[in-house]
Amino acid sequence: MAGITTEHLVKEYPGGVRGVDGLDVEINDGEFFALLGPSGCGKTTLLRTIAGLEKATDGKIRIGGKDVTYLEPGRRHIAMVFQDYALFPHMTVEDNVAYPLKIQKVGKQDRLARAKEVATSLAFEALLKRRPGQLSGGQQQRVALARAIASNPDVFLFDEPLSNLDARLRLEARTFLKRLQLDLGVTTVFVTHDQAEALALADRIAIMKSGKLQQIGTPREVFDRPANTFVASFIGSTPMNLVEGIVDGSTVLIAGTPVPLPSSAVDHVIHGQKVTWGARPEYLQMHPGAQPNTLPGTVTVSENLGAAMLVSIEVGDHLLKVIVNEDLEPELGTPVWIASEPRRTLLFDEEGARIAAPSEEISHPQTLLVNRDSAITP
Amino acid sequence: MSSLKVEKASTLAERESKNGLASLAVRKFLGRIGTTVFVALVLAFFAIPVLWLVFAPFDAHPSMNVKLPEFTLKNFAVLFGDSSALSSLRNSVVLAAGTMVIVLIFGSVASYALSRVRIPGREVLLYSLLLLSSIITGTAAMVPIFLLMVRLNLIDSQLGVILVLSAGMLPTVIFILKDFMDSTPKSYEESARLYGAKPLRILWDVVIPIARPGLATVSVWAVVQVWGNFLMPFILLTSPDKTPAAVIMYTFYTQGGQPNLALISAFSLVFSLPVILMYFFVSRRYGFRFHGGIKS
Amino acid sequence: MPETSSNKEDARTSVRDDAERQTRQKSTHEDEDVVGLGKRRAVAFVAPALALISVFLIFPAVWTLYLGLTNYGLTGSQALNPQFVGIDNYVSALTNPAFLNSLWLTVLFVFGSALIGQSCLGFLIAWMMMRVNKVVRGVVEFFVLLGWIIPSSVSTFLWFALLDGSSGTLNLLLHTPGTAWLLRYPMWSIIVFNTWVGTAFSMLLFSSALASVPPSQLESARSAGAGAWAQLRDVIFPHIRGHILTNTLLITLWTFNTFTPYLLTAGGPDGRSEILPVFIYKLALQNGMLGQGAAISLIMIILNLMIALVYIRLLRTKEQ
Q1: Predicted ipTM?
Q2: A136 contact B CB<8A
Q3: Torsion of CA C218, C220, C225, C230, to 10 degrees
Q4: What's A4-226's CATH class?
């Protein structure tokens, strides 16, 4: 059992800045867990505090049930892969991979054998006698991973594992990493600022902002049912459209035009309430002619995304973006109408929290306890 | 009539522009000459004294002035036959090596701690040490140091000289090495720490190998400083069998009688060469850097 | 549906993340210790160096304060039983014509060798080297550097030989046989010698200073018709003003403290080249007047301190 739990974890720097502000997180054994958020949100601080490289100011950390809050980093059975890989430049690849075992006082024969074993499983056996300086970025990453694996840890921590690779390599490495984690089954926590990476790799994601937790959920959950406008705009390769509106009976008035009330918000709003209406560009349609319940607007910009087009449409004072088929290339100034589906749109209140049924609502993320096998309805 | 005037004007303009071009060329030429003369003078000023060092050691009949040598190597035979000259070189090596070892060990360990741990008053300490070592020069402190060594019974002791020279160099060395370590990424050490390595082990396995360039530069700098240092051994060492080359060189030409130019020339060359070689080796490898303008 | 974030977003976020990492590293650096050294062990690591420095650098300087107030001597009762004499040493120093002479000579020495000699020559060479080809530059810089690198006792002998009255090279070149330069012109000799040794420092400093002047500014001055002198005055000097000051202070400090001229003239003849370092040596270690020597040493330390403080003040204002 090597799940990780934090209880009201606080990391405060001199001067009062809180890198981590009262976090309660539970990471399950064997889970691939992502810490996601913008710069300065505290995700790396949290990772380093779990590792023990930073001392917690308050709160507790448990690994595998054991309280490690004041335990030396070297005794927590954790392996961490840093963003710059931290491969010792003066040692060969072989010695680098075997290093953790050297510390553990494993004999030379045994540890070199283990290094070879891990290197073979990660397909870089031929590089064992080289120096890190002679390796490419992708190879270095694998060596860093191998070193972590060779140390037989209970937990893997990755600090931005893919950001040092160039874009093309990154996609390959992503698949590789996912597969690796599934094979090894070791609890893995990784930090990233790239939401696509988090969505693709993680079993569950914790989204953070300014040291506080915004939401924990599976990729599907944070994508379809974001807890607030911050998460809604952070997740998704094209940000969700967020527009002010006013509830009017069973519709929402956007720039004066009524659109259907999102199904998740039905019965949970009052007439005249000020809300924020959220709709992903992927889930909106653009029509050349007026239709019932559509938003009228004018095309301003069309961006070619390869297999699709991202069209920016001016609706009153707002700018909405819609993703449409690649064959359509609407000209600047063309009048269009935007259609939405009630099941694919969301409503947020004035504070930014999502409006939904209490049973379905992801209320206080701090007290969340989710088992990988049972997702929250629906 | 007017066409004639125009023609005259055009030839005038042509001539003027030709003159202009000509004067530009003349100015450039004069500038070139000026630069060449300057370079020649500078080269003469700096090279002529050194030429003696190049020619005289190989001259069968060396004299005080620079002249082309009647080639011979027997001056070096004279040098190697002179036991006091040889032992002085050995003493220089002892002093240089001893200082280098102390400065390296004490300095690297101290700068590591200062770089990685926030000790209260760290910045103040560093800068005041640097300041102190700049204003308390050998010259300004020769009196108290002499007296101190008398009291500590370290007069005429090579250890004494080593300790004094080390103390003078340590502030600069610590400053340089700390700077160097500050710019070394901490992820290597953190990585090793997570794998369970203890601090001393991390220092040995990770930090020192990575800091090698800085350590090498500092070692060479220390050796060069000690090798040529005259004042401290001059005032602190009294027995002739302990004097280093820098001091013995001085006695060679200030003792009464004719200076033994054969010995002096060969000795000067042998004494100077290591330092020259080391200096240019380091600057080729690591680039010549200024460290707060400390004289090497 | 596009899955990856756009590259522009990536670049922006990675720049922000680098900033975050730097601030985090800075606060980590200030707060934690990376390898778990612990404050106690860290102090133990610093202790040996600190001990050595305290005993052999700081203590002597402090002790000078006390020594200068005694009549310590090398022999006799003054060695065994030194008496406290208060400021007598300072008074006698300030009224001692030899000391005042030495002080004056030192001023001349620093002015001539450091301020005029090394600075100007160093700058001129650095400037000229910008206009010659790489090979010439390499050769010139090599020979200039040699003066700095060659051990002081060797370079003094080289000049001793050069200036020798009966067979020195200088007399040969200038067709002035028999001129004993070191005896007739001792101050000039040591000034020129010290310039020969120290110019390398100024040359290198000014070289890098000149290299940092943006060439585009020089070129726009040139195309506006500015000649070499105007370029120097209007573009170059403003840029390197700070460097000039830095260089001046550093070589002043160094030249003020250099003992090497002793090997050339031993302060003579008759004290005509007895700069302060030589004066102190003779007074304290040859004539055995340690107390007086200490007093003058203190004066020297204070003068050094003043030069250094000006330098530091300069650095501070430059940073602001």
Answers
A1: 0.83
A2: no
A3: -30
A4: alpha beta
